[in-house]
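Q: I'm building a small set of examples for a reading group on sequence design. Run inverse folding on the following structure and report the sequence directly after it, with nothing in between.
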């Protein structure tokens, strides 16, 4: 009886995993930061390889439904749903909360809008198994072995439960305070998970791209 029970339990878990794998996944792209180390530039609109960082992010989550961008409205090549964190510039956790309010899928991709290698980074994420019953999420680790929380896939209910423990709807809270207590599988990604925080980061990303324009000055757009 025990062996039969274990077999049936395994079959049930397999069916549940297969069902999750065919369910749609929402995506939340965070694009509402102040970019203080870039002098207030509109970071998601900076160009790498002939495409804005925001468009790299949107392309990376192609197939997700819905694709929600949290931040000031801006031109994109594809249709997205726009929303803002409350209050504006309330930090990434407040942005996640705003995006989750529009999500009704079991899983959600979280992605920052400052990843020049967003398409390849998310492709690496997709090559790993879907979330199982014992995991709350999976995210990438960059070349410095830092958890890149905003290149990850998470169970939406786990994010909501973690948000409920934070004051003020997560305003000004750190990503670590939201996510460090979850059961997250980390995937080494090297330079794929490197983001753009400074002008030097931007120039390195442009230099690494074979189709980047040469000799162009940094975009001095400001909010």
């Amino acid at each position: 009886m025990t062996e039969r029970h274990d077999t049936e339990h395994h079959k049930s878990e397999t069916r549940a995993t297969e069902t999750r794998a065919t369910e749609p996944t929402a995506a939340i792209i965070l694009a509402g930061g102040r970019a203080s180390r870039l002098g207030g530039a509109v970071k998601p609109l900076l160009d790498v390889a002939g495409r804005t960082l925001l468009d790299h992010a949107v392309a990376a989550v192609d197939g997700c439904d819905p694709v929600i961008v949290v931040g000031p409205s801006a031109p994109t090549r594809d249709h997205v749903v726009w929303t803002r964190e409350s209050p504006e510039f309330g930090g990434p956790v407040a942005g996640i909360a705003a995006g989750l309010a529009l999500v009704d899928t079991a899983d959600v991709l979280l992605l920052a809008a400052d990843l020049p290698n967003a398409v390849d980074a998310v492709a690496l994420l997709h090559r790993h198994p879907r979330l199982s019953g014992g995991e709350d999420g999976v995210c990438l680790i960059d070349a410095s072995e830092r958890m890149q929380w905003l290149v990850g896939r998470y169970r939406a209910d786990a994010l909501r439960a973690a948000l409920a423990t934070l004051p003020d709807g997560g305003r000004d809270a750190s990503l670590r305070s939201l996510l460090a207590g979850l059961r997250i599988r980390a995937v080494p990604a090297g330079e794929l998970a490197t983001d753009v925080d400074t002008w030097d980061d931007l120039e390195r990303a442009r230099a690494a791209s074979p189709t980047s324009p040469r000799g162009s000055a940094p975009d001095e757009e400001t909010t």
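The CA atoms of residues 28 and 110 lie 5 Å apart.
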